[in-house]
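User: I need a structural model of GNAT family N-acetyltransferase from Actinomadura craniellae for a docking pre-check later this week. Nothing fancy, just the predicted structure tokens so I can convert them on my end. Input:
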Amino acid sequence: MFRTPRLLLRRWHDSDRAPFAAMNADPEVMKHFPAPLTRDESNALIERIEADIETRGFGLYALEMAGTGEFIGFTGLSVPRFQAHFTPAVEIGWRLSRAAWGRGYATEAARAALEIGFTRLGLDEIVSFTTPANVRSQAVMRRIHMARDESGDFDHPQVPVDSPLRRHVLWRITAGRWRALADHQTIVEPETPTGR
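Assistant: Understood. Predicted structure tokens for GNAT family N-acetyltransferase:
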């Protein structure tokens, strides 16, 4: 588990399943994905995320409000499960409940995830991608000092060919760029794991 000033990035608990399913069923949260998730799909996603953390030693961590224990989404690092011109790669991602939007939580947690990736995992580069219309996520990418790779835009192979969401924009940040801007990062403090 990792702590930022307001948040905990931690392993997933069974109690996260219901609020995560509600979040994944919210059409506004899932606007830039092909479809909202069913409860079973949402639960399966937690299982995949937890399996990745067990296998790789990192992943998409559940995001909790440090003061209240409220689950608000996820943030972390993952390895894309498809082939593209920039893979293999490590991706930073986040998904927050609508009630948590607009308060800087995604940026705060994403800065912590970059710190984990570059200082604890020794990564050379981290990427992120989304649809061109997802300006909220791209604003987070900009705030964490990622750079848009306009030559890297691509058609997401896991999105249907006829979908308007198929085209994605690519953002990148190297370890060198992150180190040059490290004074802007959130300090991450390891915490004692509490289990699932």
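Before docking, keep this in mind: The longest strand covers residues 71-78.
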